[in-house]
Amino acid sequence: MGIRIDVLAGYPINDEMEQVLGLAETVGEPVSVTFMWDGREEPERAVLVPAATLALWEHWAPTAYPASGAGVGNQAVAEEPELAHPKEFGAFTLFRRRVGGRTAVARDGVVVAELLDPDEARWLQEKARNVRQGFMDPKQRAAFEEFLARQASQDGQ
Questions:
Q1: What's the CA gap between 157 and 148, in Å, rounded?
Q2: pTM across the whole model
Q3: Strand arrangement of the beta sheet that strand 92-96 belongs to
Q4: How sure is the predictor about 76, in pLDDT bands with cuts at 50, 70 and 90?
Q5: Using CA atoms, how far apart are residues 81 and 67, in angstroms rounded to an integer?
Q6: Sign of CA dihedral 120, 36, 77, 48
Q7: Which long-range contacts link 60-67 to residues 24+ away (Cβ below 8 Å)?
């Protein structure tokens, strides 16, 4: 999925966070990120998805991500809802939702990206792709499926 970036982010190091958030906004595609927050032993893994990409995925995905699978074995979703105080990192403000584990990233009052659980991001991307393929004519769909079958596995990268 997109680019993989490992970040050692310790609050209040604004510059690192601002650089990562700015990079994801500039690239315009999902960025996998690993955060090591001060005071936490386990890393937090998330996918930073630009707002336009997320809107496209959610438009084409037939249903919402199943809540029972959200955050299994991942620190990105808190076991107990935490207070939703925004955290500022330079020009960006992070708003963690109490329900669902997503974090909206805003700049100048506009949401530019969201931090999602990696499983949710992968699920949304796959569902959206599958539904979009359903709108192709049969010849185009067959050619596209053949093209995808020839692509190297992303697990091996």
A1: 16
A2: 0.67
A3: 3-7, 31-35, 44-50, 110-116, 103-107, 92-96, 87-89
A4: very low
A5: 14
A6: negative
A7: 60/127, 60/128, 60/129, 60/131, 60/132, 61/124, 61/127, 61/128, 61/131, 62/127, 62/131, 63/127, 65/120, 65/123, 65/124, 67/100
Is the bond preceding residue 138 a cis peptide, omega within 30 degrees?
A: no
52 is written with which tokens? 């336009």
Q: Which residue has the higher pLDDT, 97 or 58?
A: 58
Task: Identify whether the C-beta of residue 112 lies closer than 8 Å to the C-beta of residue 51.
Answer: yes
Average pLDDT over residues 10-25: 70
Residues 6+ apart with CB under 8 A from 149: none
Q: What is the pLDDT of residue 8?
A: 56
The answer to whether residue 156 scores a pLDDT higher than 70 is no
